[in-house]
Amino acid sequence: MARKYSSKINKIRTFALSLVFVGFIIMYLGIFFRTNMWVMTIFMLLGMLSIIASTVVYFWIGMLSTKAIQVVCPSCEKPTKILGRVDMCMHCREPLTLDRNLEGKEFDENYNRKKMNME
Ligand SMILES: [Zn+2]
């Protein structure tokens, strides 16, 4: 079975990292418009905003990490963190769950969404 999901914390981290890159690309593009002061300023500001946003996301990961439950993965025996009802091991991508009812079932990220709707 192909495991296309990755651990949530890793996913957010990838997102934050891509924001940094996007920010730098936007600022780099601004250099091409250096003849036009205003356009360049707008590009620089957008790039800055993107980098600031990534800092915020990184901060948010830190907050999430403290709330995540630390467990030892039964598959690779390394400590990993679970966010929500189902998540994946950060090291071997083994699907993990805190809910006994879901044990043995196929990994589905929708379990997290269903729980959110009920609350
Ligand atoms: Zn593992």
Number of strands: 4
Average per-residue pLDDT, rounded, comes to 84
How does the helix and strand content classify structurally? mainly alpha
State the major sheet: 2 strands, antiparallel
Q: Which strand order do you get reading across the main beta sheet?
A: 1-2
**Helicity, as a percent range:** 40-55%
Roughly how many Å is the radius of gyration?
A: 19 Å
The string of secondary-structure elements, in order, is HHEEEEH
Beta-strand residue percentage: 5-15%
List the ions, cofactors and other small molecules found in this model.
zinc ion
| Whole-number total of structural domains | 2
**Amino-to-carboxy terminus distance:** 32 Å
Q: Which outline best applies?
A: elongated
Low-confidence stretches: none
Subcellular location: Cell membrane
Family: Belongs to the UPF0295 family.
Organism: Metabacillus malikii
Transmembrane segments: 12-31, 37-61
Descriptive notes:
With 119 residues, the protein is mainly alpha-helical. It has two domains: 1-67; 68-119, no CATH class. 54% of the residues lie in helices and 12% in strands. The protein is built from three helices and four strands; from the N terminus they run H-H-E-E-E-E-H. The protein has helices at 8-31, 37-67, 110-118, and strands at 69-72, 79-82, 86-88, 95-97. The strands form two sheets. The chain has a two-stranded antiparallel ribbon with strand order 1-2. Strands 3-4 form a two-stranded antiparallel ribbon. Helix 1 runs antiparallel to helix 2. It is elongated, with a radius of gyration of 19 Å. It starts with 7 loop residues before the first helix and ends with a helix. The mean pLDDT is 84. The protein binds zinc ion. Its main location: membrane. Pfam families: DUF2614. The chain crosses the membrane at residues 12-31, 37-61. It is a multi-pass membrane protein. This is UPF0295 protein J2S19_003053.
